[in-house]
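Lab notebook, bench 4. Still working through the backlog of constructs that have no structural model yet. Next entry is a single chain of 232 residues. Request: give me the structure tokens for it.
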Amino acid sequence: MKCLFVFAHPDDESFSSGGTIAKLVKRGEKIILVTATKGEKGQFGDTPISTKENLGKTRGKELKNAAKILGIGDIVFLDFIDGTLVRNIESLKKKIFKIFTKESPDIVVTFDKRGGSNHPDHKAISESATRAFEKYMVSSKKRVCLYYTAVPRSYLKKYEKAGLAYKAFGKMNGTPDGDITTIVDIRKTYDVKLRALRAHKTQKKDVDRFLKRTSFVNLKKEFFELIYENSI
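Model written out:
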């Protein structure tokens, strides 16, 4: 089985799906990661480890290190600039569809339509990947599925109460618990996920927030919502 994960920035893969990716790799599945940008507008680290000019290069290296830890076989950089995806949805869709056609994945995973955190790039990559998948699903001659990553609404309420919700792009909605179709037990790959997260050294602030959440919810699970599957 071939699984293709489509995200906007380096670190999206580790935060949303790192344990699941590592678990699939252990099962012998092939993983391909598509990343639209190199996160040129992200953080530099608590103690800056990159300049603004070199951040994309630095984060690209961090992603390669994290991918190696997770066991990701291939990374495809689409080479868009961080913060520009909303203006490039049609171009993104075409590039992603071309990758689907070439790689013929059985499963595709991307952000939900709200981008998880309301980040404009996340929402744009979700829309582009979803539209590309709709076209791919019609032409595919095998069973294919599209999943969205999910943050359970019950978890989000606990994050908000603890002051650990991500609010840079407004209040997050999360996914209603009843809409979640797939819960992946990542107890055996949780340590791998943590090592991959820590490889994103420039994003230490977000990693630290993630670690603090472990006191309030069970983060040894990852959540997904099945959006589309064909009838083959």
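Notes after review: The domain at 2-226 is CATH 3.40.50.10320 (Rossmann fold). The chain has a mean pLDDT of 95. Flag for follow-up if needed.
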